[in-house]
Amino acid sequence: MRIYELTFILSPSLDKDATNAEIDKLIDQIKAGGGSILEVQHLGMRRFTFEMKKFWQGNYFTIYYQGAAQILANLEKGMKLNESLLRYMAIVLKPSEYAAPSSKVMTDDDFKNDNEDDAVDGEEFEG
Question: I need a labelling partner for 42 at 20 to 30 A (CA). Which of 8, 10, 67, 98 fits?
C-alpha cells in the first residue's frame, strides 16, 4: 500500500459544518476503500492570484492516507463532480518523504479555532 498526499481547496462560502461534512465524505471514501488516514491538516484560508470558480480565496486542506491506487481513482470521480471543491491534487509519497504527524488530527474545535484566527491580507474571515 502506498502513501498519498491529497491537497484540496474548498469553497470559502461553506460554513464550518459543511466544510467538516465535505472532509468527512473524503475520509469515509478512503476508509471504505480499505485505506487508513494518517493525518489531516487544515492549511487555512488563502487568497488566490487569479479568480477560481468566481472566488478569490479558498480553504486549503491536506489529507495524508495509506491505501491502494483504486481509492484515489474513486476519490477523483467524486471530486470532479463536487462543486464545493475548487481544486485538488494528489501525489504518491515515498515512505521516506512522509514524516510522522507534526500535529494531531484536526477536530471540530481545532477547525473552529483556526477559523477565528484566519485573516487574509489584514481582512477578517467571516465564515
Answer: 67
Give the CATH number for residue 114.
3.30.70.60
pLDDT in tens, 25-64: 999 999 999 999 999 999 999 998 888 888 889 999 999 9
Strands 85-93 and 36-52: unpaired
Instruction: Give the count of domains, the chain.
Output: 1
Residue range(s) defining the domain that contains residue 111: 2-124
* pTM across the whole model: 0.76
| Angle, CA 39 vertex, CA 118 and CA 91 arms, to 5° | 95
Model confidence at 110, pLDDT cuts 50, 70, 90, reads low
Output DSSP code: residue 15: -
Instruction: Find, among 49, 79, 74, the residue nearest to 61 by Cα.
Output: 79
